[in-house]
Specification:
The protein has 14 helices and 23 strands. The strands form 6 sheets. Strands 13-12-9-10-11-16-22-20 form an 8-stranded antiparallel beta sheet, sandwiched between helices. Helix 5 (96-104) packs antiparallel against helix 6 and helix 13 (433-446) packs antiparallel against helix 14. The protein has helices spanning 4-7, 18-31, 47-56, 70-80, 96-104, 116-122, 125-134, 150-166, 193-211, 277-295, 326-331, 343-351, 433-446, 463-470, and strands at residues 11-14, 34-39, 61-63, 84-86, 110-111, 174-178, 187-190, 216-220, 226-233, 242-252, 258-263, 300-307, 313-319, 333-335, 363-365, 368-375, 377-378, 384-385, 389-394, 401-405, 413-414, 422-430, 448-452. It has 476 residues and is α+β, with helices and mostly antiparallel strands. The termini are far apart. The longest helix is centred in the middle third of the chain and has 19 residues, at 193-211. Strand 1, helix 2 and strand 2 (34-39) form a beta-alpha-beta unit.
């Protein structure tokens, strides 16, 4: 049987922007695939536009009015002769309706991601929770069905407040989440039953507006937890998922947005934990694979976990897409002894129908990886975005460093205000945690990042915040 990639000349439409668009282009080039990229007016100076023209010529780049206009995206796909669409992350990446339309429209395309049925099933936190409980996978105490009735919601909230008090928690807190949400969005804490109704109304309104779904999930708030992830990859059979280890994403902004990711998720070889950290990592990995097999998961995805201070893991959600932090897992991995793993290339390859071609025993993990999200923001002012232009950007090349960015290094760059002010992702590798941390600080100290706003005030970034947080990574 021929490899589906070899038997048909594919062209991948990249329905995204910035560094992820660049990485998808590079993966397509690695696989010998043609691509077509998109840009909007605010992104005209992005390096993803420069690379698209460099690798594919002017005909490989199309201007659109919005990355969220599906009709415009499909029009470009048809005009360019695309056979597949890669949504990257964000935008349409976890929209099962979009994925279904990709597969079912008259001019059918391949959605580079899980099948729309899997996205619909696991993209809903409540469906995910039901599947987990059916398989004996631990989940956070709380509702396991879409809650739309206000009285039912209040009853669940009261029972969770009472349960926490019975457990000796003096200041119980619950979470109200948009059941179809993700990425830390559509979540609010409630510490008083009297405040619950107004929060419930707010989350329901947000969920209906963003996801066309009023369903909410009401859960107990777990305090002082670590946020861990398991990276899963499977081919279209959905029967042979493998994992590429764990990540710790506990360094976050006030809004639960990740700032540092570390692979693996704990380091019992150099740090002491109040629980069996090795067993926790093994357990969440096994649980994630168990669910992936049951769901027939058929592409790249991430199982997100919270781990309590006593070592209890609770499944939080499944992200049915490639994630920003995929590169830090790839950095510590090798397949059949070959390093330089590219999970985006793997995602495209299996998404186009190729068999996985390896099993879990062929994957080895070595060393420690750290990923820094470098952002124009003010951590000392509630991580508020900084608006202005980058006047100088560069870094010393190192064999232990990979940096992904849409910011030019040879000219000034106005940060688009239409999107989050993410500037770069830096991935550092070390043979152990101590070396990775030392190299991480060395990189941050050597990074040349300068800019100013319209008033001539200097750039604000999170670089100093990242330095401060590096010392304590993986400690719990």
């Amino acid at each position: 049987m021929k490899n589906p990639i070899e038997s048909k000349k594919h062209k991948v439409l990249i329905a995204n922007r910035g560094e992820i668009a660049i990485r998808i282009m590079q993966a397509c080039r690695k696989l010998g695939l043609a691509f077509v990229a998109l840009f909007t007016e605010p992104d005209k100076d992005s390096e993803h536009c420069v690379l698209a023209r460099k690798l594919g010529g002017d005909e490989s780049l199309y201007r659109v009015s919005s990355y969220l206009d599906s009709n415009e995206i499909f029009a470009v796909a048809d005009q360019a002769g695309a056979t597949a669409i890669h949504p990257g992350y964000g935008f349409f990446a976890e929209d099962y309706r979009f994925a279904r339309r990709v597969a079912q429209r008259e001019h059918k395309l391949i959605f580079i991601g899980p099948s729309w049925q899997v996205i619909r099933e696991l993209g809903d936190k409540i469906n995910t929770k039901r599947l987990a409980r059916k398989l004996g996978v631990p989940t956070v105490p709380g509702s396991d069905k879409p809650v739309t009735d206000d009285l039912e919601a209040e009853h669940i909230a009261k029972s969770l407040f009472d349960f926490q008090k019975e457990q000796g928690i003096n200041k119980p807190v619950i979470l109200v989440k948009a059941s179809a949400g993700g990425g830390g969005m559509g979540i609010e804490e409630v510490d008083d039953l009297d405040k619950f109704r107004s929060v419930l109304r707010r989350i329901k309104s947000y969920s209906k507006r963003q996801f066309r779904d009023e369903g909410v999930l009401i859960e107990q708030r777990i305090f002082d937890f670590n946020h861990l992830e398991v990276q899963i990859v499977s081919d279209r059979t959905g029967q042979n998922p493998v994992h590429f280890g764990t990540r710790n994403c506990s360094v976050q902004s006030l809004g639960h947005q990740k700032r540092i990711e570390v692979a693996p998720g704990f380091d019992p070889s150099s740090l002491r934990y109040a629980f069996d950290a090795k067993k926790v990592l093994e357990d969440i990995t096994e649980y994630s694979l168990r669910m992936a097999r049951e769901a027939g998961y058929d592409n790249v995805g991430t199982w997100e976990w919270i781990v309590s201070p006593t070592g209890q893991p609770f499944l939080m959600e499944v992200n049915t897409r490639i994630q920003v932090e995929n590169g830090v897992s790839a950095r510590i991995a090798a397949i059949k002894g070959k390093g330089e793993v590219d999970l985006i290339a793997e995602q495209i390859r299996v998404g186009l129908g190729a068999p996985l071609g390896y099993t879990q025993k062929d994957i080895t993990l070595n060393g420690v990886g750290i990923e820094y999200r470098i952002i124009a923001e003010d951590p000392d002012n509630k991580f508020s975005p900084w608006v202005g232009r980058i006047t100088s950007f560069g870094w010393p090349e190192q064999d232990w460093l990979k940096l992904h960015s849409q910011v030019p290094t040879d000219r000034e760059y106005e940060i688009p205000t239409d999107f989050d002010p993410n500037l770069a992702l830096a991935i550092i590798w070390g043979k152990d945690l101590a070396e990775a941390k030392a190299r991480g600080v060395e990189f941050l100290n050597s990074l040349n990042l300068q800019g100013e706003n319209a008033s001539g005030e200097a750039l604000k970034s999170n670089v100093e915040f990242l330095k401060r947080k590096t010392e304590g990574i993986l400690a719990f």
